[in-house]
Amino acid sequence: MTAVSLRDVRKSFGPTEIIRGVNLEIQSGERHALIGPNGAGKTTLFNLISGRFPITSGEIALNDRRIDALPPHKINRMGLSRSFQITSIFHRLSVFENLRCALLWSQGYSYSFWSPLWRQKALNERAEFLLEDLNLTSRRDILAGLLSYAEQRALEVGMTIAGGASVILLDEPTAGMSHSETDYAMALIRRVTQGKTLLMVEHDMKVVFDLADTITVLVYGQVIASGPPEEVRASKAVREAYLGALEE
Amino acid sequence: MSEATPATVAIGAKPMGRAWLWWGALLLLALVLPWMFYDWTTGRHSGFMISMLSQAGMMVIFALSYNMLMGQAGLLSFCHAVFFGMGGYTVIHLLSSIGAGDIGIPMEVVPLFGGLAGLGMAIVFGYMATKQRATAFAMITMGIGELLATASVMFHHFFGGEGGITTDRMIDRSLFGLTYAQGIQVYYLIIGWTVISVVGMYFLTQTPLGRMANACRDNFERAQFVGYDPKIVRFVQFALSGLFAGIGGGLYAITYEIVTFDAMAGPLSANALLMAYIGGTTVFAGPILGAVLITVLQSGVSLLSNSWLVYVGVLFITMVTFVPTGLAGIVMAHGPIHKAGQLGRLTVPYLRLLVPGVALLLGFIGLVELLSFLTIGAAQGKKLSLFGAPIDVNAFQPWAIVAVCVLGGAGWLRIESKAFNRVWEQVTADVKARELLR
Q1: Any idea which architecture A2-247 has in CATH?
Q2: Across chain B, which distance is largest between two alpha carbons, in Å?
């Protein structure tokens, strides 16, 4: 079954076309990596799928339902959640509150101003459980903005998966991390995205080839290759694109 | 001045624990305070105290409701007085109708109708304003404020034009058989509604809406990606803050029996901002401190000095520059140090700050008063005197003393505050180290 499908998606900023007709199918339960040189449009593509920017033309569907005209919060409620390349958390709320906020909608609280949070046992237990899962229990009551970088990245992943979305988009989750931090983060991501569809932008090739079932290569707003890791690794077009980008 | 250290624990991170004691003490103080100024020989309350305390009570509600936007949702509004004023006008009309026998509503629930009027207005205007955030939001609210201020002069029937409208609060309907002829009865009515409002607004901070308002303040984009529409969060928060502002306005109408244009105009909106900011927007109780302080300045200092607005203004600038977390922020910053039992180490550094601080303060007050007596005071035919000794504002000596106090105090304070900062950093570092060791 297709979890996310893109058909001839285009996006222009002013006269410049950044995404130039992308076709992509992401199967349910797949771990899909999106790679490509800087400026290829990977993050832009994420922004289009998650509804942060409107598309110029084309179609995007989530579980066979069109989402390309919907605002981000509606797309999120349909089961797609994303993280950001630049850490995006609620920096003046505690770590626990960050996770609880990420849980609220999926637990059906909506805009409730009548249910006191301290009495929501199931919700609070879930948030505590997530804290433990992310290994952040000792940081529970600290303001999220005061966490170390790696901890903030872990929190961001936690907030992304908290709502129980079936499709997870991670934008460079290991960017700026040391080797040991990357290993730890990848183990975490592997664990918390079990059974979900994962689409990930990543620069670290070791991580990509370790984790991904399918790799899509994006160059100048177009997909030049998509398939299993061995196939992509062997592809001449990919080698050329990457080498070309490096030579420039 | 201590550097603004961000409080390490978020607003309302946990339901109140020992804080109940403080709240209880504050309430008790509010209840007995009028009796401390009771004149037992004539059997009369001090009219000045009662009206100042009543004013403080309604301003506490107003400032806290403003902070639902400013501190909790990160929205800078310039039209908050509109909801206060609408509550006031509505209650004036309501009291007149009750007094005429058209409707029968007991006095104790009348302020609620002020709140409903505020809520209604906040729903209408919030729908426009909350589509935007940040600067655009502030601009829209400014427009709304101007619009309503103009409307209040245009629509005579409801607003009574420039003279405002009056009523008589002796409607003789009460759940407890009270007449509300005396200020003290009105004061206790205000206290009752202040308690209800404070509890209500605190409760809201502990609900999903309250928490998401904080979240949208910190990062509205992320809020969208956890399933929330920040526009709706802002809208509901705005509407509810209008409800509480309207309750405050209703109490205002009952207290003064007159509501004019001033109760919904720009300066009152600005006052809400001042109270919330000076008190501290990052702590729930902060605006309470600010509201009480500003009210005392307004009622007390305005009797003593022509220049009381200058003091409020300078206080505001000082707070924004040196202590953006407000008075409550300063208090909260001492929490972890107190917990670690290290507060004693700050005593001497504080005392050393106090001396140049007082010198600067007195010098500044002297300067303002000399200037004021040189100009306005002279026009009013007033004479400046200190402890009964007359001071000649045209002589050289008082100006010299004041200049020495200001310049000397400022220079000395600079040196001392550097030393203080060093101690402060040392102490906070020690406290952190202790926490890590635990």
Answers
A1: 3-Layer(aba) Sandwich (3.40)
A2: 71
Separation in Å, CA of A16 to nearest CA in chain B: 25
**Domain range annotation of chain A:** 2-247
Token pair 């070309």 is found at A244
Averaged confidence pLDDT in chain B: 90
Task: Answer whether B274's CB lies under 8 Å from B180's CB.
Answer: no
Q: Which residues of A touch B206 (CB under 8 A)?
A: 116-118
Which positions in chain A touch B9 (Cβ < 8 Å)?
94, 141, 143
pLDDT attached to residue B438: 65
CA–CA separation, B375 and A189 (whole Å):
72
Beta bridge partner(s), residue A112: none
CB contact under 8 A, B226 and A101: yes
Which candidate in A111, A141, A148 is best for mutational testing of the B interface (most B CBs within 10 A)?
A111
DSSP readout, B112-148? HHHHHHHHHHHHHHHHHHTTS-HHHHHHHHHHHHHHH
Q: Is A26 left (phi over 0), alpha (psi -120 to 50) or beta?
A: beta
Locate B13 and state its tokens: 């991170």
How far is A85 from A203, CA to CA, in rounded Å?
Answer: 12
Nearest CA in chain A to B7: A143
Q: Which of A72, A91, A100 sits opposite B218 (nearest CB)?
A: A91
Domain B19-309 has CATH 1.10.4030: no
> Hey, what's the torsion of the CAs at B416, B422, B428, B432, to 10 degrees?
180
How far away is chain A from the Cα of B118, in angstroms, using its nearest Cα?
Answer: 18
Do B273 and B69 meet the contact criterion of CB atoms below 8 Å apart?
no
Q: Residue A54: how many CB atoms within 10 A of its CB?
A: 12
Distance from the B404 Cα atom to the nearest Cα atom in chain A, whole angstroms = 43
Q: Provide the chain B residues 267-286 that lie in CB contact (below 8 A) with chain A.
A: none
Q: In a mutagenesis test of the A interface, which of B225, B283, B428 is the best target, namely the one with the most A β-carbons within 10 Å?
A: B225
Q: Where does the pLDDT of residue B306 fall: very low under 50, low under 70, confident under 90, or very high at 90 and above?
A: confident
Domain positions in chain B: 19-309, 336-437
| Mean pLDDT, rounded, for B162-185 | 90
Q: Distance from B228 to chain A by nearest Cα, in Å?
A: 5
ipTM: 0.92
